[in-house]
Design goal:
The protein is an alpha+beta fold. The protein is built from one helix and two strands; from the N terminus they run ββα.
């Protein structure tokens, strides 16, 4: 399974936030986008294993 790295440069006064080591997020929009991709991948995986 391949993950897409979603990152952006944060303002200097705020550090990067890490949800998972292989993915870097800053802000809510990139996080929500990755969560939707994760949901689709999980549904495809579990539907295929039925």
């Amino acid at each position: 399974m391949e993950y897409i790295e979603i990152s952006s440069k944060p303002p200097k006064d705020q550090p990067l936030r890490y949800l998972r080591p292989e993915l870097k997020f800053f802000g809510l929009d990139p996080l929500v986008e990755q969560m939707k991709l994760d949901e689709l991948q999980a549904r495809a995986y579990f539907d295929a294993s039925k």
